[in-house]
Amino acid sequence: MTEQRTLGDLALEVRSKNAGPFWVTMELFLRDEAGYALAAEIVDEDLVASLHEVRAQDVQIFRIPALNVVKISFPRPAPQGGLHDRDVHAGQHHVPLASVPAHPRG
Predict the structure, then answer these.
(1) 7-98 domain in CATH 3.90.25?
(2) Strand partners, 1
(3) Which of 31, 14, 39 lies closest to 91, judged by CA?
(4) pLDDT tens digits, residue range 14-43?
(5) For 65, left (φ over 0), alpha (ψ -120 to 50), or beta?
(6) Nearest 10 degrees: CA dihedral of 64, 69, 88, 9?
(7) Considering only CA atoms, which of 25, 26, 27, 21 is closest in space to residue 78?
(8) Is 90 exposed, middle or buried (0-12, 13-18, 19+ CB in 10 A)?
(9) Pair 62, 27: CB distance under 8 Å
(10) CB atoms within 10 A of CB 69
(11) Nearest Cα to 54, choosing from 38, 76, 32, 70?
(12) How much is the pTM?
């Protein structure tokens, strides 16, 4: 049995960070055009909404083919530094995205 590839396997780097006190930004830096094409197909507003329990209409996705980058922004689950904030720097929000299986939809 072979191990299934993930978006993290296709990427040079997957990261998340603050985009102000109310937003998180995640970036997928893909290794090549093929990986970018697959990630650009897989990553959509519904996927991000399901991974981070936000509304799909609040998710913003920026596809940058010239750089093989998919950038995603969405509202933080709790304001930065607030009582219910579990990741002040938003440095761990990328983990579920990196774990998404990398296979075409269909």
Answers:
(1) no
(2) none
(3) 14
(4) 998 888 888 999 999 999 999 999 999 999
(5) alpha
(6) 160
(7) 21
(8) buried
(9) no
(10) 19
(11) 76
(12) 0.87
- Domains in the chain: boundaries: 7-98
59-73 residue pLDDT tens: 999 999 999 999 999
Q: What is the C-alpha radius of gyration for the chain, rounded to an integer number of angstroms?
A: 14
Please write down the HEC assignment for all residues of the chain.
Answer: CCCCCEHHHHEEEEEEEECCCCEEEEEEEECCHHHHHHHHHHCCHHHHHHHHCCCHHHCEEEEEHHHCEEEEEEECCCCCCCCCCCCCCCCCCCHHHHCCECCCCC
Rounded CA-CA distance 18/91 in Å is 8
Percent of the chain with pLDDT over 90: 62
Q: In this predicted structure, what is the pLDDT of residue 1?
A: 45
